[in-house]
């Protein structure tokens, strides 16, 4: 909440008020406290205030506690009493919604978050896949073995010609298909490598979001170009 050009952080029952000067907001800070002391509410309040000032905020919302900013809050009796104690009487109009854009691994409810399996790690991946305790333990073992034997595929330099991989179609254009294969650079399947029959446009075979198997034909690390083939991956 903005008061007189300052970000209101909180108040005390004896009338004390705490503010953050916007020009000082580029300093590092730490919000600490016991469970239920208001750490999340404070973080939301800061993010909402920055939004009012026209400053975008990136929040890592692991548990989903901050996602409610996209909807206006509701005042109940307990909240109203608390507001009176800290000097916020008559300010129920502060409960508003704020513009929010989500990052989404699947690209279905927000901006596609590009990451690799190794960057996610076994814990987050287990939650995404909905694994039980035993399956999660086995996944952790698999990650450890892959790490010890340097089997991780995280960058273009890890690609070798002849590899057959599974990827996601990111773009379909006149001369080919761009496929995300889990590294930081999408690979290109030329239209001649999409299938074994003649096609006028790759969209006759694939669409954005399709999961496809591809074979690595060539890797140019300097130009960061990856040549792929869908038809050879099926042979």
Strand content: 15-25%
Average residue-wise pLDDT: 81
Mass-distribution shape: elongated
Low-confidence sequence ranges: none
Helix content, binned percent: 10-25%
Order of helices and strands: EEEHHEEHHEEEEEH
Spatial strand arrangement across the major sheet: 6-7-8-10-9
Structural class computed from helices and strand pairing: alpha+beta
> How many H/I helical runs?
5
The span between the termini is 62 Å
Computed CA radius of gyration, to the nearest angstrom: 25 Å
Number of strands: 10
Sheet with the most strands?
Answer: 5 strands, mixed, barrel
Summarize the topology:
Layout: E1 2-3, E2 6-11, E3 17-20, H1 39-52, H2 77-85, E4 103-104, E5 111-112, H3 117-129, H4 133-148, E6 164-173, E7 176-180, E8 187-190, E9 211-220, E10 225-229, H5 231-234
Parallel strand pairs: 4-5, 8-10
Antiparallel strand pairs: 1-2, 2-3, 6-7, 6-9, 7-8, 9-10
Helix pairs in contact: 3-4
